[in-house]
Amino acid sequence: MTFWSWMFLMLGMATCALIAVDVRRRPQHMAVMNVTWPITGLYMPVLGWWVYHKMGRAAPAYVGHESPTGHETSESHDSHDGSHHHHDDKPKWQGVFVSATHCGGGCTLGDIVAAPLATVLGFTFFGSHMAGHFLLAFLAAYAFGILFQYLPIREMGERSPRRALMDAIKADTLSLIAFQIGMYLWMLIATPLLLDGRMDAATPEFWFMMQIAMLVGFLTSYPANWLLVNKGIKHAM
């Protein structure tokens, strides 16, 4: 399984890098998405580029002005400040999909930080290394998830820091829990069957399983994001 682990991990990193390079030229209207989209590529190898291109790619930063060739671009009719997305009329399912990637970005970043810590520290919870890993992953994912919600709310400048924090907690808690549940379910299956019962963040096999777990988490968070959007707690993006 080592070969397949490295292959999909490398594809994920390549997708992440490709999106990151493109985002620098085409910055997102919401700054946090400049980080979220590359992270999405990590757990959606290859597919992540298609999703970004279809649902999130913004117009080039020089749109509405002269391009490096000295000519105005044909996309200038879609945006005058270079930051507006040219898929503003995307259907609701796509808007919810992008909202789920927003949640997934914070969760994934938290898990990437927590997993090595759990391995290095040998952290356990009630004597279980797996439970210890899950606890650290949840705490880190929750912190990053709330941060990813808080920053764009504050960016709009319409709420006080306290109100923005409360709104971020309301908007992200359910979707984050749903995301983590999906991840945990997959790792509960994969650890004994494919990882010899060990959650070792120093191995490519572990990260391959985490890559799949993040994708499963994204799928389980989608219904939660749909519900939050329907209730008006969260906006489709």
Automatic annotation (TrEMBL):
Residue ranges with Basic and acidic residues bias: 68-89
Domain DUF4396: 93-234
Pfam families, per the entry: DUF4396 (PF14342)
Membrane-spanning parts: 6-23, 35-52, 130-153, 174-195, 207-229
InterPro entries named among the record's database cross-references: DUF4396 (IPR025509)
Signal peptide interval: none
Chain segments carrying region Disordered: 64-89
Keywords carried by this UniProt record: Membrane, Transmembrane, Transmembrane helix
Keyword Membrane: yes
Superkingdom of the source species: Bacteria
Protein name, UniProt field: DUF4396 domain-containing protein
